[in-house]
Amino acid sequence: MTTVAPDPDPTPRLRIGEAAELAGMSTRTLRYYQELGLLTPSGTTAGGARRYSDVDVARLHRIRHLRDLVGFNLTEIGAVLSAEDRLAEIRREWWAEPSRDRARELLHEALAINIDLQTAVRAKMAGLEEFLHGLEERAATVRRRLEEEAGLLA
Question: Is the C-alpha dihedral spanning 7, 11, 12, 14 positive or negative?
Fold first, then answer.
């Protein structure tokens, strides 16, 4: 029997330091991401203190994943997050059972967003492939020199 993980709690209950610790980031980073529009705290106190939810922390993990594993810069991450936010809106509208024409529009828009994201990932992969190719060429050069040196010593 498989269990489904519960949805993240949307209640803004975490202070900035707590959210930063859960996300493995500094409070300064959270403030910077807010400044860039990558993350908006789910709430604020009457005194203006930021409050974060589990949903916000999940978004921070997504930002970190896109940065560290995929290699996107913060501008690219912003574009991905905007696309994913729009896809979430499309899903909500889809499940509200729109008219047939609107459903078709939503599907076309979702497909276009998906294609744009694929293009961004392919561009990043092409850059990584080029970098890898350069490393392989340098390693081959070093191997040849090692073989030459071994031949001179024999």
Answer: negative
What is the average pLDDT value for the chain, to the nearest integer?
Answer: 93
Q: What is the mean pLDDT of residues 29-46?
A: 95
Task: Give long-range contacts, CB 8 A cutoff, 24+ apart: 15-22.
Answer: 15/49, 15/50, 15/51, 15/52, 16/41, 16/49, 16/50, 16/52, 18/52, 19/52, 19/56, 19/57, 19/60, 22/57, 22/60
Query: Residue 4: pLDDT above 70?
Result: no
**Residue 18: partners with Cβ closer than 8 Å, 6 or more residues away:** 52
At CB < 8 A and 24+ separation, what contacts does 30-37 make?
30/60, 33/60, 33/63, 36/74, 36/78, 37/78
pTM of this prediction? 0.82
Closest-CA residue to 53 (of 68, 71, 36, 40)? 40
Helix segments in the chain, DSSP class H: 16-23, 27-36, 54-65, 74-95, 100-153
